[in-house]
Amino acid sequence: RFALNEKPETVAEAFGLQTLEGFPPRFNIAPSQPILVVAAGEVPDKGSNDSGRRALLGRGGFIPGWVKDQNDVPMLINARAETAHEKASFRAAMRHRRVLIPASGFYEWRRTGEKGAKSEPYWLRPRRGGVIAFAGLMETWASADGTEIDTGAILTTAANATLKPIHDRMPVVIQPEDFSRWLDCRTLEPRDVADLLKPAPADFFEAIPVSYRVNKVSHTGADLITPVERAVPEPEKKPDRKPDNGQLSFF
């Protein structure tokens, strides 16, 4: 689940889009719902200020192109960044249809380990604020009657130190300076952008405890990201290095 509550003009500026209309703030975007996707378009003319990127609506939940009946496969919400390039479901999209998925942040649930206890929801937002980009994959699936659906999945990687106490995975975030590289499926293969598929720096996100109201997809108001009183797990600390005694060791 994630949210995109920035103004359309803010999103358009962040992603180098000429225009973006008709996209209201959304605070609880769930699988199977429409998601905003930014894809590479036509190569712009030399000297043009147009990035060539285009925005479109897809459905959250990836359907591989070779599937004959969408009911025959589970909804693929996420794709593991470590293996997507070799999986039959995602291999073609990793090569030909890499996209950016704009977001203001995402939700994650922490299991407390206590029997019968609810998992605790957290709102993960960038400390600097603003809109961010998840690495995404897109596939246009055609049904037997010719109906086409644009579907998408978010790439995930191992959690950073901030998120690890909450969950062991997190979305891959593509930084603005890398947008063009990630979207360039004409000249760059998956191996050429593999270095982008890494956890965000430990201080990139902050974890905000939020209400259990976010558990229900029918709740969509701005109050979902309002902080509540609940302890935030401490970020995972790296183990202290042993002091260097000036001797080299092979072990």
Secondary-structure content class: mainly beta
Largest sheet: 7 strands, mixed
Low-confidence sequence ranges: 245-251
End-to-end span in angstroms? 44 Å
Strand tally? 12
Helical content band = under 10%
The shape is globular
Kindly state the mean pLDDT as a whole number? 90
Strand content: 25-35%
**In angstroms, what is the radius of gyration?**
20 Å
Quickly count the helices: 3
H/E element string? Answer: EHEEEEHEEEEEEHE
Could you list some keywords that capture this structure?
29% strand, mainly beta, 3 helices, globular, 5-stranded antiparallel beta sheet, 7-stranded mixed beta sheet, 251 residues, 8% helix, disordered C terminus, single chain
Description:
The protein is mainly β and 251 residues long. The protein is 8% helix and 29% strand. It has three helices and twelve strands. It has helices at residues 8-15, 91-96, 179-183; strands spanning 2-4, 26-29, 34-39, 54-60, 78-80, 98-103, 105-110, 120-126, 132-142, 148-158, 169-171, 205-209. The strands form two sheets. Strands 3, 4, 5, 6, 9, 10 and 11 form a seven-stranded mixed sheet that branches. The chain has a five-stranded antiparallel sheet with strand order 2-1-7-8-12, with no helix packed on it. A hairpin with a 5-residue loop joins β9 (132-142) and β10. It starts with a strand and ends in a 42-residue tail after the last strand.
